Amino acid sequence: MKAERDRFWKLLEPEYHRSMMFCRKLTGDRERGDDLFQDALVIACTRLSGLRNEASFRPWLYRVIVTTFRSTVRRPWWRRKKPLTPQMEVNLAGQDPTAVLAARRWLDRAFEAVSTEDRALVTLHELEGWPVIELSQLLDKTEGAIKAQLFRARRKMKMALLKQARLERTENSAQMRQVRKACTAVKSGIE
Asked: Does the structure show a pLDDT above 60 at 173?
């Protein structure tokens, strides 16, 4: 048993930090991410005997993490804070937090449109930089199936954002009409 545990920690060492950060991104929260990571490590450690090839430890570990994430989701994941990529944070102007909050809100809306598996897939590919070939090993699917799933997930996210933008534009137009009417009424009352 001790030899199995030592083997697990030896295999985990190069992936420890990245897999922990993935858990945090997946949950959108540091504490929940750390809890998910700990739960996944306990499960992975107990199931290490099922790993056939040590070279495939990384995809196997991430499969355990994603499965653990899916099984522990108690409330809708889209209500949790979503991580911004470093590129998104750098491109946001100044120190004004409203831009960060707006970007997070849009990311929330985009992730609402996809399943937890699609969210994990998009997070791994877009935020973690996993190539399609590794994702295909992780999910036991062909590269073509992964590309198609990524395409569909991105399309769903884009359509959700476009729909939300149209709704906001319509609401803003209605609000502007009300403001104009109010201004006209006030203006005619003054004259």
From this structure: yes
